[in-house]
Structure formats: C-alpha cells, structure tokens
Amino acid sequence: MRSRLFHYASLLMLCFLSRSSAAMAAPRLPVRAVNLGGWLVTEGWILPSLFDGIPNNDLLDGTQLQFKSVTQNAYVAAENGGGAGLVANRPQASGWETFKLWRINQVTFNFKVFGNQFVGVKSDGSLVATAAAPGRSETFRLVRSPGDQYRMRIMAPNGLFLQANKDASLTADYGQRTSWGDDDPSVFVVTRVTGLQGEYQICNGYGTTKATPILRNHWSTYIVEADFRFISESGLTAVRIPVGWWIANDPRPPAPYVGGSLKTLDKAFKWAE
C-alpha cells in the first residue's frame, strides 16, 4: 500500500567512533553522539536549496491546496469530506475544502480529499470524490495564470476545464479561452496550506533520472571523512545517521527513490573505525 504521510520511515544507524575493533565491541561510556540529519534522508528545512531546481516546487507531492471560485466567491468542498460530490459554495475553508496533491509530474496531479478518496470526473462531467485509488478519471492538470501563479484553472481528463456553476455545482465542461478575469467560472484562486519537503518529494519532483546525480553528489559532499575525524577529535564517540526504509532495497529501491545511499552508509562505518 502506498503510504503518503511523509513517504519515509527512518531507520537509525548508530556508528561508534573508535580506534580499534575492541572499542567497537565495547563502546566508551557515556556515549556522546551527534546526529547527521539531512545526509542520507533529505530534509528540506536543513538544505532547502536541493529543491530549488524542481519545476513548480511549491506544488510538490503532499502539498495541500484550497480552491476558491472567483465567480462564486466560494471555496470548493468535498461534501461530507469525501464519498459524495464536489460543490463550490463554502464561504470559508477547512478540512473538507482542502485537497492533497499526489504529484504525477510538474503539472499533472491527483487530488485526495479529507476522507482519503480521490476526486474524479463522471461521464456526465460532474465531480465526485469516491475513488479509493486514482486512475485516468482522477487525473487533472493545473494551469497557472502567467500573471499570478496562484490563480489557476483545472483541466479534467476529458480536456475541458472545471467550472463553478451558479447552482454551486462543479462540472468539467468549460472549453473557452480565458483572460483570467473574475468573470471566468473556470478560474480559481488557490491557497497553499502546507507542503512537504522530503526524500519522496525530491525524487518525485525531479524524476529519478535527474534526482540521481543530485542526490549522489549530495551524499558524497555533505558529510565527508574529514567530518568524522573532526567529530572524533572533538570528544564525541558516536554518530547517529537517519536512513530511509528504502535503503533495504538498495541499489534498486522502489520508484521514485534513488539507489546508492547504502554505499555511502558503508563508507560511514569505515570512517568510524
């Protein structure tokens, strides 16, 4: 089952710094350790520059958005939080009016609602949030205004745009061009509620091909052997290295993760000897 909470569960590797195999067997007490976070598991708050080259990097996987119709002056909501239709009649936004992105590429997404269903288009063009898993009918394209990146249109899989109707219904049947004005029922003002910046986001955002050299360069330069010498000379006796669960499948982890972090972890154990 695809888990999207943070897209990783960290394992913790504790390397004891020593000068002999005997010391490795019986580490010096008390243990004085330092955490090497942000190295083998990406954390955006530690090194946000890693994400700078991702197109639409404010719309990474797991980002939560709210959509407000410019013509109805109301937010889009999944009725009952999911399991029913979508409407555009909410004066304020909360959980039912918040949609989590599953990013397919820089402009194509699935929308997950409060009740964990996915938004989809029915054959009559109406919008519902009833799918347990996304497919073609649950795949949408976000089109941004050239003058305001948080003014967007949503293209449905039928090639038409979503529009907010006067009866508060939401339908995928608008085919006209836009001037991005407040008189266009297919235009929505988007609020970015929150986002994630982790290993899944960087691999998914760049794509595995582009993410591979970026992450491998990061692994080989962010922490080096000289850092281990400095740590030891400073009186510390251990390092704590968070690693992702996908390292168990290295060098061929499941998509979109990049292989190679296990080799770097092996170096860390050698540097700690």
TrEMBL record:
Pfam families: DUF7910. The keyword S-adenosyl-L-methionine does not apply. InterPro entries: Actin-crosslinking, DUF7910, Fascin, GH. One of its GO terms (molecular function) is actin filament binding. One of its GO terms (biological process) is establishment or maintenance of cell polarity. Residues 1-25 form the signal peptide. GO terms for cellular component: actin cytoskeleton; cytoplasm. Residues 56-191 form the DUF7910 domain. The keyword Signal applies. Keywords: Signal. PANTHER family: FASCIN, OS05G0244500 PROTEIN. This is DUF7910 domain-containing protein. It comes from Aegilops tauschii subsp. strangulata (Goatgrass).
